[in-house]
Amino acid sequence: MDLKQLRYFTAIAQEGQITRAAKRLNMSQPPLSQQLQLMEQELGVLLMERNGRNMELTEAGKVLYEKANKLLDQMDETITEVKEIGEGLKGELSIGSVKTCFSYIPERLRHFREHYPQVTFRLQEGDSFRLAQSLRKREIELAIVRLPLELNDFSSIELPTDNFVVVVPENSSMESTIPMKELAPMPLMLLHRVSGVGLYELVINAWKSHGYEPTVVCQCPDAAMLLSLVKAGVGVALLPSSTLLAFPAKGLKVVELEDCKIESKSAVIWLKDRYLSRAAVRFLEMFEDR
């Protein structure tokens, strides 16, 4: 059994069909089926069972799939590391970011491109939980996320603390600050995370600790959508202040909370056990030097 066969096997497992796997691998179906049969004969176990049109992993197949993924990841990272020795920075750097943290990227990306023009970027958007999953799957190298987030699998650089602000329509008569007592009855719109504890829970807990119950009329994982709703007069939004740096401020007005300080923390994270490309290391240095 060799690495090529392992790549064939993982492709079948991921696609669930030999036909789709063959298309992905740019090869015909019969030789791919033959390779799977040869692996099963060599190992003396059934790796996959046919369920209608789909192929499903057996218990033995699940073990091999998990081990094969780790082995192939290590091989790919080893090849990248060897190729980078003695070369200038080039290739593609994949970075994920939650929308409310995107303001950390543009200036750094511009500066990076000035020094390393042969490096290209692939950006991915998602909430913190999904970006953590993408890191584990090695779909991206780095991610800028909002905390809290379980960081046992990750190394991290913590970013400056971000205070929440109230965002209202530009024509609002609201003063530059507002006490929670006045804000409590207003229709409030908050960010929420698709999975796990996030900014929504952070805000709700802060309100309750001050003895107030917010009037939440909308929850949404997309900051841009919330800001559009604010402009339309649907309600007011409570967001980390840096969020506004990544979106057009026209039609919006920012108001400070007078008697409550709600803080949001964010971080750049990456997998502890993977090789980081030289481009990723250089990009991280711009956060360390902030």
Strand percentage lies at 15-25%
Gross morphology is elongated
CATH superfamily of the largest domain: Periplasmic binding protein-like II
Q: How much helicity do the residues have?
A: 25-40%
Summed up, the helix count is 10
Overall pLDDT confidence: 88
Q: Can you write the helix and strand succession as a string?
A: HHHEEHEHEHEEEEHEHEHEEEEH
Span between N and C termini? Answer: 48 Å
Kindly identify the CATH topology of the largest domain: D-Maltodextrin-Binding Protein, domain 2
CATH architecture of the largest domain: 3-Layer(aba) Sandwich
Q: Give the oligomer, counting copies of the same chain as homo and different chains as hetero.
A: single chain
Summarize the structure.
The protein is of the alpha/beta class and 290 residues long.
Description of the structure:
The chain is 40% helix and 25% strand. It is an alpha/beta fold and 290 residues long. Strand 3 (91-97), helix 5 and strand 4 form a beta-alpha-beta unit. It is elongated, with a radius of gyration of 24 Å. The mean pLDDT is 88.
Task: Give structural attributes.
D-Maltodextrin-Binding Protein, domain 2, five-stranded mixed β-sheet, single chain, 290 residues, seven-stranded mixed β-sheet, Arc Repressor Mutant, subunit A, 3 domains, alpha/beta, elongated
